[in-house]
Structures are given as C-alpha cells and as structure tokens.
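Why do we bother with holo predictions? Because pocket geometry can differ from the apo form. Keep that in mind while you read this record for BES.
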Amino acid sequence: MNFLVSQGNLIAAKADAIIVNLFAEVRAPDGATGAVDLALNGQIQTLITNSDITGKLGEVTVLYPTGGQVAAKRVIVVGLGSALTFDLAAVRTAAAKSVAKARELGCETVATIVHGAGIGNLDVQAATEALVEGMLLGEYKSDLYKATRKSSPLTTVKIIEFDANKIDAIDAGVRFGAAQGRATNVTRDLVNQPPNICTPTYLAEQATALAENSNLSIEILEARDLMEARMGAFLGVTQGSSEPPKLIILRHTPENIPADTKPIVIVGKGITFDTGGYTLKTGAGMLTMKSDMAGAGTVFGVMQAISELDLQVPVIGLLPTCENMVSSHSYRPSDVLRASNDKTIEIVSTDAEGRLILADTLVYAQRFAPRFMIDLATLTGAAVVALGQGQSAALFGTNTQLIHNLQAAAEASGERVWHMPLYPEYSEYMRRSPVADLRNSCNDRFAGLGTSAAFLKEFVGKVPWAHLDIAPVAWLPGGKAVKPLGPTGATGYGVRLLVHYLRNLI
Ligand code: BES
Ligand code: ZN
Ligand code: ZN
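The structure, written out:
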C-alpha cells in the first residue's frame, strides 16, 4: 500500500472510493464531509435525518454517487464516534474499518482526508500517523497458508488535504506511520508463522535478510559461542531441542552522532515453541505457544522501523531464540544451572524458561554499556490473569525516567502499559532455594508476575532497566477480545510503543 499526499479537493479525486467521516453528534455535515454531501445532493444528510447512519465509531456506509460531481466510484462514510471522546485511537479504528471495507469491495485506489486534522482538532502529524497506521494494520490478514489467500488489491491511498499549510505535517506523518505500521505487520507475520517454519534458524535468516536490505549490522552467536560465554541458563533451556539456538544481534548505528554515545539495548524473548518442557503444559495451554517468540518478533520490527526512519539514537536489538522441548536431553526440574554472571539457579519449573534465556542475554547486554535496557517477553500467564487478554502489558523497571518515558510512549502510540511494583520481597522469594542462589519459580500461585520480574532484576547489574511482560497483548485469541486493529492472532504489540519511545529520546 502506497501513500500519496496532495493538496486539493476530495470531490475531484480519481479513486475507486473516497473516504469521509462523521461524528456521532453531527446533524448537518460540514467540512470535507459537508462538501461531499453537497456533491451527492444531500444523500449523507438524508441518511442522518433518517437515523440510518449514526456516526458510531467504526460504522461504515457505502454510497454510490450519481450526477457526475464526485469523480470517484464510491463514497465510504466512516463513523468517528463522539467528538467528546475522539482521540488518535479513534482515528486508527476508523481508518482500519474503512480500509477493511475498501479491501472487501476490491478497491485498488482510495482517497481519504486525515480524520481529526480539521474539526477534530488533533495534531496534524499525529493524526496522519494514526490514519496511516490504522490503514496498514486494518488491511492485515493472517491467512499465510490458505489456498484462498489473496494479496490485497489496495495499492494506492491518496491523502488529500485542502489546506496547503498542513501538507508538510502530513508528509511527516506518512513517513512515521508507514514505517511503524509496516514494521508491526512484519512482526505479526513472524509471530503468526507456524513453529515448524519459524525456528531459531529461520529467525536468524530473516534477520540476516533484514540486515542486507538496511543499514543494520548483524552478528549471530551460535551454540558454541553461548558455551564460550558460559551462558548456562540459556543453554539449559535449549539442550532438549534438536533445533540449534541463536543469539541474534542487530545494531543500528547512526552515522552523525558522537561515537561514544551510549546505546539503548532492547531484548526480546524468542522461544519459538514452548511446550513447558518436563513441567509440561496442557494441550490447551500449548495451543498458542508459537507466539512465545513475540518479544523477539517485536524487537525485529522495531529494528526495521528505526533503521528505515534513520533515528538518531544508537540501538542494539538482542534476540535470544531457542525451543523449549521434551526429550532425553531436556533439562529437568531440580537441575541447577549456572548463568554467565555466576549466579546459580535451581530449576523448579522447566516452564519458567523465558527468564532463563533472558538472564544470560541481560548479562551479555551489559558489555555494550547501555544507557537503558528494555526487555519484552511473553513471560507469564499471571500477567494475563492480572490485566486481561488484549488490554495492557505489565511494566516493571528500576529507573523512574525510563518508566515515565515508556508511559508517555504508551499514551502517544495507543499501546498500553501498566506499571507494577518490584517489591524487595519478590526478590527474597526467588532467592529462597535450598541448593542454589536463585530458583526459577516459586511453585505456588502467588505473585507470579512480580516474582518473574524480580528474577530478571538479578541479571541487570547497574544498568537502568525496564521489563515489559507482553503475554496479555502479544496474541489475541479468537472470539473473545476486542480487536479493532487486526485479526485474531499476532498483534505486533510493542513496535509502535518502542519506536515512539526511541523517537522521543532524540
Ligand atoms: N510462555 C509462558 C507464559 C505465557 C502463558 C504466555 C500464557 C502467554 C500465555 C511462560 O514460559 C510460562 O510458561 N510461564 C509460567 C511461569 C511459571 C512456571 C512460574 C506460567 O506463567 O505459568
Ligand atoms: Zn514456559
Ligand atoms: Zn514461555
């Protein structure tokens, strides 16, 4: 999908459909919608008067112009909801709904205004970003292996603005929105891939291809490198699998910044399939566990986006990836592993594997002398119990500024975070092993979320660090959750959040 920005009048736009909007309170449309309504001889007004359209958020109505005043074949009217609650999230939802309709109608070209840039009073660049993101996310389909899979017919979106003074801001919005939206869909594709395809080796190949097509540099640590680095925790998890583990390192190094600028390191859990190991999951519990590499998928998407945008901040993405399988080589409950910072860990549950591969990776990250370190992981079912499916990620951290900036990025991107406590008692709980420095699980139902973060904290040294448990938001199961911006399955959560965070650091 390409976005073309121009100054002009929507009525004259040649397209398979033009898209206008309607607030719920509006009894007589004005602005661009009003102008189109006049050209339609008041058809929109008639629908409003008869309560046949209400302007409810995401409501989509298709009209067919007669009389030759409107150049396009169709007019799509999308509801923006109440003007009182209108925000960027509403723009994304409206854009996603209208584009899904255009795709269904087989449109190749659509023309739209920027919802909210006029009467909505939103910042023009931010509204454009939300529009473009919503269109890209709304167009996404997860039918990767269906015989009926069709690529979207929609190739061109013309964004038309009457006011020439707004064009620069719209151009900037398209640049950021397109990079963020496309990268989110790349992450979705990685996470939606089945686990027989998306192995650690596949992730390494995809990362290599990304580096070849961008300015990112890449290094891949193999099993022997992990042994050399004495990553006993990571190696314990992977030893049951015949798929070789990888620690993928992607680096974005902007050219014109001082060479000694400290990087931001982002780390993503990349378990390509989590059976639970000998602490075996149930069949139902295993069903969505191909998504246990969503943290790594998000880091991949973030690196793609920031390289495309050439953000002037050095960022290193670390993707530790392996499988958690059952075999005669697998690690057992009661095993004791030694992590690369020499802390020993009693394995209480082989299903608490994510924190083990993250432990060694967080230790490794410290060699880059990071300014901040952020990890993303589908770490606990407890996070889902606490926050619900699809609502918010759980945020932990050791640094007030970092937490605050991530909260601000959540606000701007619409990807929610909720700050949780890191009480010292959680750490004590994890240190209560009779045989080792730490245990990897407490073996009870209590504080599963806080204790998982406290475990990671043992491996971050003095680097200011934040942890995002994305288990609630990385994957949307069918039927249950609210999912305005895409289908069931991978959400690509965190790409927009982290790109916003990194943009605002500059
Ligand atoms: N990958 C799971 C967490 C998960 C569960 C993500 C459900 C998404 C949906 C993780 O490896 C795990 O199994 N965690 C255990 C930790 C426990 C043993 C301390 C859990 O949540 O039960
Ligand atoms: Zn697990
Ligand atoms: Zn897991």
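The chain has two domains: 2-183, 223-504.
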